[in-house]
Every structure is written in structure tokens, then in C-alpha cells.
Amino acid sequence: MRTRRAVILGGVAGALAFTLGLGAWRSRGTAPATDPRLPLPIAEMDFTLTDQCGATVRPSDWIGRPTMIFFGFTFCPDVCPTTLSDISGWLEDLGPEADRLNVTLISVDPERDTPAVLSDYLANFDPRITGLTGPLAEVERAAAGLRASFEKVPRDGDYTVNHTAGVFLFHPDGRFASIIDYHEDRRFAVPKIRRTLS
Amino acid sequence: MRTPILAALLSLVGLPAMACETFTIGNLMIEHAWSRATIGAERPGVLYVEITNTGSADDALVGIATPVAEMPMLHETVVTDGVASMPHAMSVPVPAGQTVALAPGGYHGMLMGLTTTLKEGEGFPVTLTFRDAGEVTVPVEVLSMQAEGPDCEHAGQ
Lengths: 198, 157
Ligand SMILES: [Cu+2]
Prior knowledge:
The complex is a heterodimer.
Chain A lengths: L3 E5 L13 E5 L22 E3 L4 E2 L9 E6 L6 H16 L7 E6 L7 H8 L6 E5 L2 H10 L4 E6 L2 E7 L2 E4 L5 E5 L5 H12 L1
Parallel strand pairs in A: 5-6, 6-7
Antiparallel strand pairs in A: 1-2, 3-4, 3-7, 5-10, 8-9, 10-11
Chain B lengths: L3 H9 L9 E4 L2 E9 L8 E9 L5 E7 L3 E8 L1 E3 L2 E3 L6 E3 L4 E4 L4 E8 L8 E8 L3 E10 L14
Parallel strand pairs in B: 2-12
Antiparallel strand pairs in B: 1-2, 2-3, 3-9, 3-10, 4-8, 4-11, 5-10, 6-7, 11-12
The complex binds copper (II) ion (CU).
């Protein structure tokens, strides 16, 4: 089967590199595969990471439930707690319906973010949010699949990590659904998530 | 580790809802100074505050200092092509007649080299240095890590 689906990415100014305004992409099983600017379907992603409880997680584990993925790190005092706080708010708005979602933070600072560190950090937010870390190469594979980027930047004798700030949404069958931009209004975020739940 | 002086300073400003008090220096009104709780002192803390310039001349926030951080600095979060970074800000403009917010996702005080864990419900002083108005020290309220700002509507102000 060959489907074409219009995808509207967030309209916030200065939006994502791969913001198309209106783009199109073909579903799995069609060659040539996907628009190279859009995240791969989850079924085509390939990486192995560890969650905050120490369990191994692969993208195939997410198939069957809608999935929300975003990047961050625990040494990030502004953007990351804000994103986690926003997501906690969205999950609260959605209520028990959101129990079906896979909600996953992927650390872009696996060097410092061990599973134990992620566990301490995530205890401050909605318990439905899980955190993944692992070898840098695996985090890079995850970012590549999502067409996301991150970069370690030296800073004042330490370092920080610039990273893609949007939240990626996928349908239960793993097809990419949409992105919630960093500065997007909550009024738009919750309906976007709801669309992956129905 | 917390020094006795620091502990005294923290308790001195450890009153509830302090983020809802207003402080003035010259024509500047300083409100809603808050921070987020940290896990330990290893990770940087953050400072948010609102500054209203009621005067007719522009000013600028040029520096911050606090006993809880060895290297406090001004940053601005910018999202370019979907990627967030936080370059140094030399100063934060406070134009005449306007309110400028250091707020999540924009300008913020970055508290590098914390000397203590920032605990929810506690407070610490911060000295804001303005180009023209000079220095003012205000208490900062530490809210939860999940906080998006102080709730002053219900604080009896
Ligand atoms: Cu910063």
C-alpha cells in the first residue's frame, strides 16, 4: 500500500531545520523510503540503550503504543527542566489516557548521565517519563534515526551540550506523527499527542 | 558543603513566597526572583527574575553575584533550526518603560559552581548589577525542579 500523508510541523518562528511548512512522506514499505529530513519510522530505527532502571531498551520495544521522544541532559538547568515540566503538564492534562504512551528522554550527555543519575533526576517529574542512556555511539544512532542533532560544546572549563529541543511523536505502529516545537503553545501540544492516542 | 555564613544567609532569606516581594533600585522594580531545586551542587543552578524599568532612560543588567555560586553568569537560550544552545549574554537590556524577564527558555542566570544544593523552599540572595542603577541584592526563592515560576496571585500580595 502506498500512502501519502501531509505533515505539518510546528509553525513557531526559527523552527526546525527540517521544517517544511507542509511536507510529505511515504509510509513504510514504499521505496524510496522516507523523506531524509523527517524522522524514520520507529521500526526502521536501530539502537540499544539502557533505561533509568538498568533495563535494555530498543526502539522495537515501543511498537504497539504511541511514542514521545525528546533529548536532554541533567546538567541542563533551563531548557531541559522546562521541557520535562511541560511534558509532565501535558501528561497530567491527558490523564490516564496518557498511560499508554511511551515517553522517553534520551540523554545527549551519556558520559555524566548514568541510569542512576537519570533515575534521581526523573523522580522530579511525571513518573511516566523514562530516561535512556548508553554508549555515545548508540545515542548518535538514536539521534540519526530521529534526524536530531546534538553537540558537546566546551564552556568555562566544563562543557554543555547543544541539542534538538523539539518533542517527537510517533503513532502506535511506529510511523512518525509530528513534532512539538520547543516554544509551542500547550493548546497545540495536547491535541497533537491525542492524535497519536486515537 | 555549606559554610556557616552561607547557612545564615540562606535562613535569613528563607521566608515563604519571597519571590512575590518587590524590590526597587532607582527606577527599576525587581520581582519574582526564583530558582529551581538542584540535585546536589555538581549541576548548575538557574536564576529567573523580572525587571521593570519605570524610568525614561534605558538600563541593562550587566552582572549577577551570589554566595551560592562561584561562577554565576548571564545566558540566553536560543533555538536555532530546532537546536537549543545557550550563549553567554554580555548584558540583558532593560529598556525604559518595559519589563524584561529572565524566564525559562530565554535569558537566565546560570549558576555555575554551586557551593550548596539548592533545596525547594529555601532561598538565597543574589546581587544584580545594573549598568546605571547600580547594585541591588534580592532574595531568590527555590521552587521545585518542575516549577515554571512562582504563583504570586495566591500569595496574599
Ligand atoms: Cu545557561
